[in-house]
Amino acid sequence: MLKLKAVLSSGLSRRALGLTAAGAALTLPLSLSACGGSAGITPAQGDMALGAAEGAKVTVVEYASVTCGHCAAWQKEVWPRFKAKYVDTNKVRYVFREFPTAPQAVAVAGFLIARCAGEGQYFDVIDEVMASQTEWQAGTPPSQSLQRIATSAGLDQQQFKACISDPEAIAAMEQRIKAGLDAGVTGTPTFFVNGDKIADSSLEALSAAIDPLLEG
């Protein structure tokens, strides 16, 4: 059984969101890769979506992690064009599903902050956390980046700590991760178009799968 054990202690330190978070442990199967995946488009508890309404002709599901380098690259290089072509025009329903990858404690904290920021800011926070990977690579502790992002989203220090240690939110995250694992997802980013896995996440490959369905 998947377990998230006290994800981030209330005594947040500079190391608390690192690879060896003090007082925090996230247990995931060893087979979970850092960034690869199989699943359908059945609505899941806690889905975050943009674009067309539920029941749209085409639904694109992305399983992603805010700590995955490939996810961050897709977010920066492909997402703006994908969003302009399909999401902003309401041609497809884009569903984002959280699937934390190593370091999992950092990923879980990032997702929890996005949810605490509220639905209206959720995707902006996700984008900021992914973009902050460059800061971590340059030596900035992930905890510092996440606290900055939380502040910009309107969360004070007390709210930030409460957010990343909320038992109910952590339990809900646990269920979302388990649902992804049960669906066969093994890594990120993983994309599905109307339930069919798309191996190539380029805009061209996604368009090749989406456009015929829109015309049909």
In short:
By secondary structure, the chain is α+β, with helices and mostly antiparallel strands.
Structure description:
This protein is an alpha+beta fold. The chain has a single domain, classed as Glutaredoxin. The protein has helices spanning 69-77, 79-87, 104-117, 122-131, 133-137, 142-152, 157-164, 167-182, 203-215; strands spanning 3-5, 25-27, 48-51, 59-64, 93-98, 190-193, 196-198. The protein has a 5-stranded mixed sheet, sandwiched between helices. The chain is globular.
Coarse structural class:
alpha+beta
CATH architecture descriptor name: 3-Layer(aba) Sandwich
Distance between the termini: 42 Å
Radius of gyration: 17 Å
**Quaternary:** single chain
Along the chain, the helix and strand elements come as EEEEHHEHHHHHHEEH
Give the name of the CATH superfamily. Glutaredoxin
**What does the overall shape look like?**
globular
Number of helices: 9
Please indicate the count of domains. Answer: 1
Task: Please specify the SSE layout and strand pairing.
Blueprint: E1 3-5, E2 25-27, E3 48-51, E4 59-64, H1 69-77, H2 79-87, E5 93-98, H3 104-117, H4 122-131, H5 133-137, H6 142-152, H7 157-164, H8 167-182, E6 190-193, E7 196-198, H9 203-215
Parallel strand pairs: 4-5
Antiparallel strand pairs: 1-2, 3-5, 4-6, 6-7
Helix pairs in contact: 3-4, 3-6
